[in-house]
Amino acid sequence: MSPNRESSESNFARGSLELEWEDEDNSPLLPISHKRECSTSSSSSSTTTSGSGSEGSVKGYNGRRRFRREHRLSQLFKLATCFFLSLTALMGLGVCGWAFSIMYARHNAYAQSVFSPPLEPLPKPVEHLVPSFSPTPLLSNVQHELDQRLFSLTLPPSTLPCDQLSSPSFDGNSSFSTRYSSLPHSGPYLLALNLYNSQEVLPTLSKTLLTVSDFLGRQNVHVSIFENGSTDNTTLALAHLAAALSTLGIRHTIVSDPRPTPWAMVDRIDQLAVYRNVALKPVTEGLHGRDFEDVLFVNDVFAGPVDFLELLWQRREQEADAACALDWRGTKGFLSRWGAGSVKMYDSWVSFILSRASLILPSRSDCAL
Q: What SS3 class is residue 136?
């Protein structure tokens, strides 16, 4: 065999190996004729072709490594995302299950628990705790002295901008006193209240009770208040109010029980019913031999004379068996500190329409407290 033939065969073998290696590296395949030309080329040409193939194979290998690394990272990211989402969902389900179990256990506890009987109150009069007022028939003088006495208990006079009876009524054509002019010819009226730690609202409530009683007729109204367990100046403030009512000749029953209520041992609704029955006790007695025609029950809220009289007037105007006011309070939103707050209905638990569905009222931003 000639040397040229041996050289050609060795070059052909090397070219075939190089081309096969390039095929494994996913490099583009060359036509068969080009392979044959490469195999019959000189030794220098084969060396040059072999060098360029090696450089291309290194680039391809690095590209594959980078692709595989990015693919693995992508898969790891997807697995981590799925894991954390699943963990969050499981934690959410766990929290919801825990809350439901607590609510269910509490429901069962209230449904099956045995409460102690309601605490029977021992009401005692409070008027004897303070001196009598200076004798005067004028409401303004009594109100002035009452404000001074309450101020001595660190209770400043009411500054609530309530509508006065002499103010224009809702229609703007007449005053409130004209709107409610039929009320003094009816009655008698029982104004009943339950109070507890209510010293903040007593300056306003005291002024309202005196004004309404004077408007409806001093002999046509009975004020009944029961206070229990207060730890502030509510008892002394009520004693001063009782003395003021006595000076004006307005019949009243203002009593107090200093004992605290064991709320953890008694059913709250049953206990409140017992306390409210104390304030409503004069219903069975009447006033001057007559049964009460209207009973106005008020809680510890800021209320003006128009609020009281409008409720009485609406019950008669609508020929209803009962009329109930709505209890509003200011919201504590982020914008309330800049005067952009609103008010919302407070006591929604007892608000039901005739179909017994709950009456949910939205917040109002057109009212200012």
A: coil
Q: How far apart are the first and last CA of the chain?
A: 117
User: What are the tokens at 135?
Assistant: 């004798």
Instruction: Decide: helix, strand or coil at residue 278.
Output: helix
Q: What is the pTM of this model?
A: 0.65
Determine contact, residues 294/190, Cβ cutoff 8 Å: yes
Provide the 8-state DSSP code for 282.
G
Cα–Cα distance between 20 and 28 in angstroms, integer? 11
pLDDT, tens digit (0-9, with 9 covering 90-100), for 241-254: 999 999 999 999 99
Per-residue pLDDT tens for 278-330?
Answer: 999 999 998 988 999 999 999 888 889 999 999 999 999 999 888 887 777 77
Q: Residue 120 carries which side chain, given as an amino acid letter?
A: E
Pick from 57-66, 151-160, 166-175, 353-362 the range whose average pLDDT is largest: 151-160
For residue 344, give the H/E element and its range. strand 343-345
DSSP classification of residue 138: -
Phi, psi of 82 (to 5 degrees): -65, -40
